[in-house]
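Hi support team,

I submitted a single chain yesterday and got back a structure, but I'm not sure I'm reading the token output correctly. Could someone confirm the output below corresponds to the sequence I sent? I've pasted both exactly as they appear in my results page.

Thanks,
R.
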Amino acid sequence: MSVKYIPVQWNNNKWLYDGVMLVGVGLFLYVFLNASPSVLGYEPPINPQVHNARAFGACAFAMLTVILCIGPLARLDERFLPLLYNRRHFGVMTVFVAITHASYIIDWYFAFSMSDKYEALLFANTSYGQLAGFPFEIFGVFALVVLVILAATSHDFWMKFLTPPVWKRIHYLIYPAYLSVVAHISLGILQDQQAHAFTVIFIIGALLVGLLHLLAALSERKRDRALSAEGVDWVEVADVSSFRDGFAKIRLLPNGERVAVYLMDGRLSAISNACAHQNGPLGEGRIIDCLVTCPWHGFQYDVRNGRSPAPFTEMVPTYNLRLEGSSVQVDPKANPPGTPVDPLQIPVAYQMTKNGEVPA
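Hi R., thanks for writing in. Yes, this is the structure output for that exact sequence:
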């Protein structure tokens, strides 16, 4: 995305990402549509329209489950970070699959209603006081509306227009939307399942999302405790020998903010760990030509001043560093975003080569 909100040209990674998604969706639908009715529990056999509707509904649930697993997986293992880069493409594609599912349902069950088919969808069943026969459709409607809103506001223009905090709060609706999908399936298709293959897969998927988020939260909490510091004076980051050229050490500061301290050609620089775009973890990016790239959406910053390269205007706070013996320390008081700070030169005695050796 450019500074003027003009879509940038697609690169090979985007083509590959979306290509894999399309192939995955195609394979899922093919397997579902051609699976034996006995495996899916259809007794008696259902008609093709309902079968198609359930195929696209199951696919949308699977895609949404994968989307919600990517975030905690990336927190637990950095090898999953590349999956975050174009996750919004994944979400938009999920919306189209979900709309197709809804279209099949409405056109089959409500096409011949005496009232408008969309009104019939909402008012054909109003048995909200009982579990058996509960109008599960309402959960699907809510989830679909939320997904459409999230897809429509996924463009960076809306983040800038609404401001990042408001935009982020809106996109947290993905979690109640997922819970609504779970309720929609639980109270709907699972009520007439004769076999339990799909039931087991559904339960495993829903539990996997919850488990991964729990593990990621516990991991973050453990990491925060390990990195927490007392007082407001200079905070120790790490021993200089533990830094890798082109990479960062992340430190939790007493005020709850995180700082990313980078080693680049024998010099250290520190900026905020939170990307100005969506608070992505800058400390997990690698430096190339003084620029660190956010692993979430590719925003770049010069680690010496916290500024994005022209014509971009994003800025993050910078921090002052000092060296006490071999200990790298950071001043917890951040400089204003975009403030240049001279890199801290590491004495030759403490420098390490790329092979992990002290230079002669």
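A quick pointer for reading it: Residues 353-360 have pLDDT under 50 and may be disordered. Let us know if anything else looks off.

Best,
Support desk
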